[in-house]
Amino acid sequence: RDSYVIDEASKDETRLTPQFAPGDLEQDSNDDFVKFRKSLDIMETYIDPFLPEHIPVPRHTAKWHGYPEQTNFRPQNYTNNRFTDEDKRTDFDALTPHRARQLAVEMARAQNTEWMSPEVHQAHHARVREPYIKVQTLAGTLKKGDVDQDIVAQMEPALKIMGSSVDLLSTWQDEETGGIVARFNYHGLMKNKWGMKCWFESLLEEECGMDNINNIVFETGFRRRDPAYEGGDYYYGPSSSYNGSTE
Are 104 and 92 in contact, with CB atoms under 8 Å apart? Predict the structure, then answer.
């Protein structure tokens, strides 16, 4: 009954084990004795030898279990934001629930919680792609490269299973070890990208007998998420207009 874990709003002392059985003859006497002791102004004390002298210590004290557990946060204004001026604050209360969530997602995904123009993002992507364009690498792009038809013929059973989820971009084979590296344009869900890659490697080994696969690369350009599966919102973000092509 003294535990602070029990909320006063839900406390039910009738569920506790009673000190006396129902109808016990001593219950009335005990209630009278408790009432009498509480009515006395005299407090029973004792002297603790480890404390300074003449300091009375109460002999009967209530058990202390610590400060009450915080069950909720104190009320405060939800618009409290030290980084946003009041005149620049977005009034989400004036929007519908769907539009408010949509706008919140857009603001969260934008850089520095600000809406960047497409030109800024195009310049950023061009700056990121510049080293790759300089050395004319295919990795990280959706550009097509050389394709060995003999390798494609070997992959045919696995490619039929994968269907339209991938498109072959290029193949490369090491002349010394015979190891193969293949790049594909992956069209499936981003959350399944790694699992589909591992499964495709297993298909090439089990269905096609290709044990010389060094790496399978699934390219997605600048696609980073599956907007159609994120609350039905098709918003890609400011950088979605760039498809990763350097041509």
Answer: yes
